[in-house]
Design goal:
Twelve copies of one chain form a homododecamer. The first copy, chain A, is 41% helix and 19% strand. Chain A is of the alpha/beta class. The first copy, chain A, is globular.
Chain lengths: 148, 148, 148, 148, 148, 148, 148, 148, 148, 148, 148, 148
């Protein structure tokens, strides 16, 4: 294995497959992560995933795991738009990451079009449902390997 | 009993009766909830109440209890003005709710006049001290029963 | 009787039960006021109600009756968002009041989320249809009696 | 006759032909309305016209006549830019209307370029002097008849 | 007599001497106008005064009297900050006027620091209590006579 | 013939009758222009029409034809909101023009409510579908003939 | 004599009677001050006047003379709109003052409609040419004597 | 083949591999499109690609090809931030599309963080260099096939 | 000992000495706190320190300890810019505090120049690395002792 | 010859000497360019000039000629204020340039005071009519030669 | 000699050749002025130059010399962005002037892109180091002579 | 001695101990500077202090002394919020400095929360009365010695 990719999921993503199925699809987070793991293995990486509704716990996780990991997929959910502290946690461990979103954050409420994370991300993928995760890992690995 | 009403209290509401008594009154949260419960029983509902200073724990509670409950009284305290994640939690479980505040949020600091919750609430009650809770449950039950 | 409560209704509230029944309910203003009066009597107050489409007439009424009244329920309709003169009329007679709205003014057009009245009101109740009136009188009387 | 078209004129339009003749032309409102009536008759409609300097009276008139009328020409004058209450009156009776202005409101003071009425109008005609009225009735009748 | 000066008073000025005496003084409007009249006579002008809480009636008065008058003292009260229609009425009759205020409008709520009238006034006098009227007539007459 | 009226159509107007028929109607641009030509002939003018998706080509056309023409109907489509260069082209040839729109630009996306053209237009007609063209030519000819 | 009134004139007021005579009148500052002095004597005050183009010198003067003076007329010229330091100087000596302007600052460039001084002034007089000084001293003395 | 995917490239993308190689990589557009074509064939689609520096030509192409195509990859370059006309062209032919960018538009100049296209796109992919194209076609095909 | 000083550290401050050593220095938080304790003892105070990445836990700590403490040093990290709830917690226990920052928050991203805490702090010290703590305790004790 | 200087002229500059002669002077673009060429020859440079009303063609020209040229004079006309794409074209070929304008863009409409080009230009010359070109080439050559 | 040209230099320009040599060049102000004088003589003008760090002294100089001079080169340094008083001084003596800057003020801090002087200048030259002075005098003389 | 520290005091600081004693304390500037000097000597530095109400004189002093000094304490008073010229003076001599304020500038008028100096300061200390000076010199010396 070439290393570990963190997959960090923010508030309410544990409700996937439960809430608003018509908007986010009927598959739950575990099923997505299972499929993502498979994809990661095919790329010779393992994933370490995490979900929390707590901004503080997300920071704890990023601090703890971020320095050893090769990269991170980050779907920070609503904290994307309100958390400077998660931004700082990423900066403190300098883990390269891709920002992903299930829905297209640009055609929702106006306050979702600003992100405190985008300008320090490698890139952003938004609007493709569960596929945002699969595209994201592919994009992330591609960039990591080009940089090394 | 016709069902359960959640009563969710955000940060610093555990300090009721302690902090700034001249502004918020001298009764503590437990006493208010006790009186609220009585009022709820009179309307043939039970209440399940919760208080936390943590945004994440409030989300956990809403996710856990929100789908079974008939409705929710929500005094999100300062998170009213900063939390999109609580908004998303409510949307994920689709629980009808009334937004309540002890003080009149419109005659305080400017940043308290914007709420991330109001536009998805059934209604808002602000400024009546502990009575905001009692008015709120009455208003909530009235709307729930009209809708069903 | 302990005194008089003014119930002041602004522009277009005479169309209740007529206009946009799906949004505001099918009961007309007179019927609501009748029920409100009953509720007031139960609290040992009489009500003096008024409706006008004219900002000036609303000011006239508040000036004339405001000083003797114990309190006021004010549904200023659209003038909520545009009238500084009504604000001044209230300040001139110093009548304590509760601001009420039938609909939730926070999930309508953006220009309805600002009120020239809220910061001088005792409190605000918005979104409960005719029940906003009944909740309002209860809230108002409670505060008046606490203050005296 | 196919029905009635309301022609509602706001503040200061009674001064037409008197005030600022170089800007608005020398014909007074009665003369314009007479010519408009002729045009309406040619289209098989009668008109019922109204002018007031009072926001409240304009609302009274729209409430009273708006439900029976087939449509309305509305030159709300300065209230175009400040009155939400007139907007609400129109919404309450759901009368289809065309917003008209004598002068081009977009090359005057900055505060005249915002209208509280335009987004609920069928359309807007601005800048053609008295001809705005004649164009307006033609445009209005055309749309009314297409819709029915 | 050299001519007539209009003295137009907007909403709530009929409450002078009644409301907020500590802020506006204990003299009522009639007493001020009586003293003003005396001052006007000394300058060889008569005054025609008017007060209304209604924006529309103020416009009616200005239209009716504005063309014959030599000048106008205008204390539009709260309509100073919200009425474009009064501005238009003045423009329609082209009466030269001085804008006056009892209190200093620049050290009150932020929304009182914008006036729809100031830029078309000859000048503005704000903050001198009843003296704003006496200063105003002196200032107005001085300018009228210089212009003619 | 009294002269030539330009009819300039901006981007995507060639899609009329094809795109979004429910919003813009099923008639294509050629059919509208044919009917417009007839109307122009009745007024003793000929029309010279032009459509392009290119801002530069629109400028070329206005420069080339604008000086000889008696007037112009301009439906600049989306360039209404983004092009200062078309504004300059019109100013350079000083052709009097009426700004027209098929739909009501004031009840669409917020960015469509600003126009770089309105303040230099004679007037604006918006919201009447193909009729905006027919009303426009009538309004334009009326103004041209009054000015000459 | 009852005391001293400061008359402080800011930048470019030494050019009065020289610059832009059509806007500010042909009388120079000395002549105005002479007439003002006469008026002050009639009111039993003497004046101490000062003019400088330097913000720092204006502050020096206010600090030096402000504590002993009974009041101040302040025409801070362009520093009205840019100087917080002059505001602080006034606050430091707590001299009551009237803000005056020769021209009507509300119908000039937009940046002249904000003042860093107005909210701490007793009142403001703007637009009456040299008469702003004579009205100002009368207004100031009236307020000083009422306060003492 | 299941159909055609348009690949539309806006201004300056013909300079790929030439300009700012350190930022955008050294591969030119033809090479990227060749690799993209291969990827498309593997998904059983053919691509039809287009590049222009002209907003008008981009609109022409989208109008011409957009109705028959199954979907579109759109890298509108700088027009992303300034063109409402391209937005309208897409709306007129209703072609589903993915918005792609080579660089991360959120960590560049502030004016690049607003897009006139994002809210009508299926999704957005930004920051992955040439890989944005390959990810984009995969994401697009996935969504198209889910929708049909 | 004269009492206890709280030293509350927000998100990512546990990474001191680890993250961005070139910006924040190589000493870790424990070492700084040890040195701070020594300094406190010299001033005859003991310190009780706390660090958390969780907004809720910071509130819990302030509520629990704030009422007994003599004062607080608060480095709220990124929550400085986003947390109204921490502000409320401080207000609820009324503990006097000094706001400190390691880096100069005014020469970083624009969103770091606003603080929800500064206006209720005794003072602010920003930009001196670990020395901000030592300066802070000295400043805090000085003020506490002056006030008592 | 030392090399080539591009002289790129944007929309409506072909109307020079035709349009608004009182504002831009009566000399046409060819005459100015002829005089400019002479001046360039005197400095031992040749010029290659271009004018287009099309943003796309301007980009084409800059891409084609920009890499070989020693520098560029750019009068982008109205595209100065709306085109990010021209900015990108310049960045892609890295040609040093001076931004010039015939008129003073700072005393015209407000929207002309922002330029998408100024911050990447060597310098800006605005307001000197045709002389802006002659000053511009002198300034440009001076800087180019200092840099090499 | 045809007359005098003022060359007015604002704050910190006395530091030229000393401060930030890499940004402003190593030549000091006297050397630049000497070279400028030579250039002026060649054009048959003499120059009178002035430098001060004091806004007030700059105003004094402009008042004193501005009326007799034929024109002025003005490099107001930082006062460009903050001084309305210098603007007024220029207006009071009506001296035609060219605004010059050594550096390109549009690629520095955001607050340097606004000037209180540009809209009343003949033109602006920014970004060419000492050459801005030499270009400026040439531009100024050219305009002065055209105007006379 | 290790060198000289400048202590620069802006407008109205000469009024310390005189003005608003309840806000700023009763000690005058000389007494504070004497105590500061003692503290400086203890750190083996001498201080050279300066106070002026004139922006220009402050610039003169900074230019004259700034290059030789080891560092500067700067309390620019109200010029903190309005002076770009002082910022430039500091940049021109590159003296490292600490920005200090007696009062907490963040809980006063809104316009005091912006500083033109903070982002180029080493750090900021605000709110500790005279102690801001003593803390400031300690902080400054600590940073200077770390840097050398």
């Amino acid at each position: 294995m070439k290393g570990t990719i963190l997959v960090v999921n923010g508030p309410n993503l544990n409700m996937l497959g439960v809430r608003e199925v018509e908007k986010y699809g009927g598959k739950n987070l575990d099923a997505i992560l299972a499929q993502l793991e498979e994809k990661a293995h095919g790329l010779d990486y393992k994933i370490k995933s995490f979900q929390s509704n707590s901004e503080g716990e997300m920071i704890d996780f990023i601090q703890l795991e971020g320095r050893e990991a090769k990269g991170m997929l980050l779907n920070a959910g609503a904290y994307t738009h309100t958390s400077i502290a998660i931004r700082d946690a990423i900066l403190s461990v300098k883990v390269p990451f891709v920002e992903i979103h299930l829905s297209n954050i640009f055609n929702r409420e106006h306050f979702r079009s600003h992100s405190f994370l985008s300008d320090i991300a490698l890139g952003i993928i938004s609007g493709f449902g569960e596929n945002s995760y699969y595209l994201g890992i592919s994009a992330l690995v591609d960039l990591i390997e080009k940089r090394s």
